[in-house]
## 1
Amino acid sequence: MTMPGQPAKQGPRSLDPHLRRYAARTAGMTASEIRALFAVASRPEVVSLAGGMPHLAALPLESLSAEIGQLVASEGLVALQYGSAHGVPLLREQICDVMALEGINGHPDDVVVTVGSQMGLDMVTRIFCDPGDVVIAEGPSYVGALGSFTAYQAKVVHVAMDADGLVPSLLREALEACKRAGQRVKFLYTIPNFHNPAGVTLAVSRRAEILEICRSYGVLVVEDNPYGLLGFDGQTYPALRSMDPDNVVYLGSFSKTFAAGLRVGWVLAPHAVREKLVLAAESATLCPPTLNQMIVSRYLSTQDWKGQIKTYREAYRERRDAAISALEQHMPQGSTWNIPDGGFYVWVTVPEGIDTKAMLPRAVTARVAYASGTGFYADGFGSRQLRISYCYPTPERIREGVRRLANVIEEEMQLAATFGATPGRQLSGPQTPSPDTA
Ligand SMILES: Cc1ncc(COP(=O)(O)O)c(C=O)c1O
């Protein structure tokens, strides 16, 4: 029996009376590992290094609430009404100004406003992928994107990264192997800046080559860039989209630079693709929330949004420093990690013999949560990796969380030394190298 306050137990799938009714595509829809532990991991005594929640406490809530109040008072009849699936025209113009910071010369007509870039991912997959089509993605890759790809029954082929991001020669090899196997590759999905979860950035010197390889194989590029303005030194990199506008679909978001809960993102697509995206968006939501779009638009025209991004960057830099110094101080030998220069994440490789997925419940019992590496691969790799998100907890909590995590790893190592490898699946094949080891 479920006690009040306890999460309801999930029965075995076979007890679901609707099982025979589900579409085949739902077979790939499974809750992420951290979602399964969410109820426990979100208790206040647990330091969560798991989720990628932005540090909203840095927002000027009072002035924002005044702006939002004025917006409803003066333009409520528009803001609370249906709008177009394409998005609010003024916001689409402002989005072009935001993208110009990374070298993109986009036209407002080619921007489609979405409910977060997650919806952009869903729509792009919906319009391009038939079941069995291949999407190439970095290994590891963003879990929400993998969820969209599997929901449309696309097959994900991972290409490894090194400290400079996606490795062009490995991309070429993967495309060649797909070609030989007669597989239809629809697009390369890539997060070039401050990668989630790997924390690395694609070297500028590799960008043209990656675009050229994709062109030569007739493969579209889907560039997902929610963190591009969060470089800790204020540095930005030329967007892939700026270098090959006709073959890149660009996904942007206000989630990390303003407010994730407003759910406002966008897609900038080649003109013909944009038409299909608007139709797909219309059938999904009719239109993105008008009020939220107008809030973002007003924010961009009345507030110091670039100053706010700087405030965010400084907060994340301080948190990154706390995470890295704690890792250096506490992690046992045999662990490695990269040092991100922007974004939210550190990608950690733990000593051999430890399975981060099997270890997760024990870590949560020790009051620290993280995202285990396997969730970021579609093919079962990543059992020696984990992602630390330093974006949300205070620096002090981050240090404490990393200390607890290191203790759990030490205990696992002692167990492994006494009884053999930790329980859970041990992969027999080679591990895809993490960014810091390749
Ligand atoms: C790489 C990447 N893409 C897309 C998203 C989704 O963001 P949004 O809030 O805009 O839907 C995230 C969120 O964490 C992300 O990390």
Note: Confidence is low (pLDDT under 50) at residues 1-11, 423-438.
## 2
Amino acid sequence: MHKPAIFLALVISSSSLSAFADSHEASGEATFDKACGRCHEATDFAGKAKDELATAAKGIISGEVKHPGRYSKFTEEDAERIAAFLASQE
Ligand code: HEC
């Protein structure tokens, strides 16, 4: 990360979102590790907005978006958790 000012701004804005986001971040890390961690690092998605990540993860998990891997045991709620965790990594 070569843009410390932007990084700081993202940390401040994402941490002020809500307590709801905080609880999702912790379980999101474990879910990300299981669902996506085999092929991705959390930092691969740095700079993406949470909404964008949630849309991507939901599409992948539901099968609407073609993606390597199997996601039948994951849910839309898992996708939200993954997105919250990834967005917190920026
Ligand atoms: C079996 C391996 C594998 C798994 C598991 C996997 N992916 Fe991927 N993913 C890939 C590959 C391969 C690409 C395409 C190569 C690239 O662009 O990095 C990709 C690309 C992506 C992209 C587009 C990259 C970009 O920068 O636009 C997103 C978003 C993504 N994956 C999200 C996820 C999420 C979320 C999960 C977990 C629910 C996941 N992936 C699980 C292999 C995987």
Note: The pocket of heme C is lined by residues 35-36, 38-40, 56-57, 60-61, 67-69, 82 (CB under 6 Å).
## 3
Amino acid sequence: MHALTMSFANSSIIKDQLLVDIDRLIRLNLDSWPDRVFLMEEAKKITFELTVKQLLSFDPGEWSENLRKQYVLVIEGFFTIPLPLFSTTYRRAIKARRKVAEELSKIVSERREGYERGERKSDMLGALIGEWDEQFSNEEIVDFLVALLVAGYETTSTIMTLAVKFLTQTPLALAQLKEEHEEIRVKKSKSEALEWSDYKSMTFTQCVINETLRVANIISGVFRRTMTDVNIKGYTIPKDWKVFASFRAVHLDHDHFKDARTFNPWRWQNIPGTSCSGNFYTPFGGGPRLCPGYELARVEISIFLHHLATQFSPCEENADGGLMVLDRGMLINTGVAIICLSGIEGRGYEYFPQEN
Ligand code: HEM
């Protein structure tokens, strides 16, 4: 799974194949936003559609939206006690998982038939069916697709949402980010697609993403098993022990990051007075299991921030609880506003039309 994901989510594939779809699908989504949307929901919709495109080459439509609805139920089941008799959520999740698997199985079977007739598609499913060294059964392929949908869906969309939350709470950073993206946009026509060189020039955006990942710690750590006795700072962890490597503990440690609990994207620009070291920064894990989707996630978040920053602009600060209100500068004259509530739990963000 690691190798296959890596081979479909590395820089050259993103640059040559995926970037154009990422840009197009994000733009389509933002353009279709109604007067009032929940940012977290929209971000999830975007990442789901991008993953479906990458895995199966399907453009968004009724099929992908129905699949996503079932998927949401499956994910809800992850956070319940697995007791079918007592938990409705768990029962519903199992049923939804079956439906998701049925839907994906149909697609896999159709593709396999097509492959046997000589039809080829250069997406992940195409590789799993034909070009990959190993032969997989339909069931294994469905498991793989389900796992990849989980891996990129919640993670990337949560970071998109949290980046907006932190930016709206840090107006200077929002202004700098906006400037960076407007500089890119000003050289292009309104509808012109972003290119790899544009992504590469988003240096402050990378600082914002780094800092969002560091503060948010959406994956708080990883488990590892010791293959041999390991000595660390005078302690011995015996062979075969399970160890939890806590990213959160390190990312929020003042010894490694000055004012570790403060969102400070400039620390990544080596501004004097801020400190951090790459050795202590592992939001995507590390070693042979390093997240194979790390570059894809960064590109998706960057392009999302690009379109958000160039289509919406801050206009006033709401006195009510320090909320930030933004209006949609370019696309809708009447404006659309964003409200950032205190957290992301329970749909913490709302966009709504501004009354002029
Ligand atoms: C902000 C977004 C993301 C974050 C923070 C994240 C983080 C992580 C972390 C911490 C791990 C465990 C690494 C380890 O054990 O050392 C992981 C594994 C993984 N991630 Fe991501 N990830 C993100 C997005 C994605 C995306 C978009 C994809 C799909 C293209 C993806 C696919 C995977 C896969 C397949 C694994 C399992 C790798 C293995 O066990 O060999 N991730 N991710």
Note: Residues 1-2, 5, 9, 148, 151-152, 155-156, 159, 218-219, 222, 283-286, 289-293, 296-297 surround protoporphyrin IX containing FE (CB under 6 Å).
## 4
Amino acid sequence: MSDTTVDPKQYIIKSEPYYESVGDEVALYEAAYNARMPVMLKGPTGCGKSRFVEYMAHKLGKPLITVACNEDMTASDLVGRFLLDKDGTKWQDGPLTTAARIGAICYLDEVVEARQDTTVVIHPLTDHRRTLPLDKRGELIEAHPDFQLVISYNPGYQSLMKDLKQSTKQRFGGMDFDYPLEETETAIVSKESGVDSETAGKLVQIAHRARNLKGHGLDEGISTRLLVYAGQLIGKGVEPIAACKMTMVTPLTDDPDMRDTLDAAVQTFFG
Ligand SMILES: Nc1ncnc2c1ncn2[C@@H]1O[C@H](COP(=O)(O)OP(=O)(O)OP(=O)(O)O)[C@@H](O)[C@H]1O
Ligand SMILES: [Mg+2]
């Protein structure tokens, strides 16, 4: 038992998140959830992974607990720790423990960022054991039947130093995500930002050009998220070239030549 009680309802997503399906991902994820299979979502930044998990949690009617991982994160940050208060010591569950107790979908975002000694705490939860040992507390939690673990990572950032161990990777079913096809992405940008589909279509075209520069001077292409930002500024009355510069050029690169190239692509469509 935890020393604090958590109401699962606080983690239920009340209204349906807008998610434009891009393939068979909804059915595949549902099947994985029904098997309580841990799932790994791979794909570039801003392509819809988090939105997809929110949509699926809502569709399945399950609570969702999201944890943004970083390299300073310790196992205790996930599992929990003793806290001192005026009445003495009190155990505080971490988000992973809460999710395992209440039967939530636990989404560990950018899990590669966490150190490997942190990541291994998920191992007993992601195989037939479905348990979580709270060593400091001497408690072994059996995961709630509805509990499922989902992790995301951006394959672009992988390096020899930062990667998941095979013994971690091979506990998950994997799903590849990428920027949606032109027509779908145009619909998303239009719906999310409120710009008309002609303007959204131009933003998507610019992104396509920039995405071809990935690996040729750009580390990442322009994400769907940035296209939505551009649309939002245009919707607020910002002149399109200025809006594109702020959202689709400046954040992406400091290299003057690359900026010129991107500016030229913007000019082609909005000049
Ligand atoms: N299929 C989609 N349906 C609806 N909106 C989408 C979709 N794909 C992307 N978006 C839009 O793009 C934005 C960014 O998506 P999201 O936050 O899910 O990216 P992500 O893949 O989780 O990125 P990161 O790896 O940086 O966390 C969303 O807020 C949404 O506006
Ligand atoms: Mg995300």
Note: Residues 13 and 58 are 6 Å apart (CA to CA).
